[in-house]
Amino acid sequence: MRRLFFLALLCVAVALLTWAFSTRGKEGILFFFLGMAILLCTLVVGGLRLVRATLSKRDAQPTNISAILGSLVGLFLGCFIGVRLEFGRVMISIFNPDLPERDFGTLFGAIGGGLLGAFFLGLLSGILQILIVRSEKAVSVEDSKDSRSRGSSA
């Protein structure tokens, strides 16, 4: 992540959070969740790259593109599934039981389903990509050209 892009994402997240706290309507919840998601993801990715680069004294590893794509697909699928399964009712009963389900059920279902879908599908696709790449890089002992690994004593 380049520094300019990192700073731009931080500015966008802070702007969304400021807008969310200054808004008195129900759209403030959407801006809050979007701003917090961008802020947390930016800080986690930037922090992990900084720690990895500092500890290994080399360039940071490339971003796991399949995890990012999995998160985006999970976000959209989770929004649709959360609305269809009326996940908003559960979210309202957990976070604010005083809200009317009729007005906020769809919004909370989309937000909750999207966040859960993005998290789980991103995690799953990232793990699968790491396992697939690791299995492709593995070389069996028979395929190795090293004579010591075959057990020959000569």
Short précis:
With 154 residues, this protein is an all-alpha fold. The chain has 5 helices and no strands.
Number of strands: 0
Overall mean pLDDT stands at 78
The helix content is over 70%
Low-confidence spans? none
- The geometry reads as flat
Percentage of β-strand residues: under 5%
Query: What is the H/E string?
Result: HHHHH
The main sheet comes to: none
The oligomerization state is single chain
Q: What's the number of structural domains?
A: 2
| Backbone structural class | mainly alpha
Q: What do you see in this structure?
A:
The longest helix has 37 residues, at 101-137. The chain is flat, with a radius of gyration of 22 Å. The mean pLDDT is 78. Helix 1 (3-22) runs antiparallel to helix 2, helix 3 packs antiparallel against helix 5 and helix 4 (87-95) crosses helix 5 (101-137). Helix content is 75%, strand content 0%. It folds into two domains: 1-59; 64-138. By secondary structure, the chain is an all-alpha fold.
Question: Which features does this protein show?
Answer:
single chain; 154 residues; mainly alpha; 2 domains; 5 helices; 75% helix; flat
Helices and strands in order:
Elements: H1 3-22, H2 27-56, H3 65-84, H4 87-95, H5 101-137
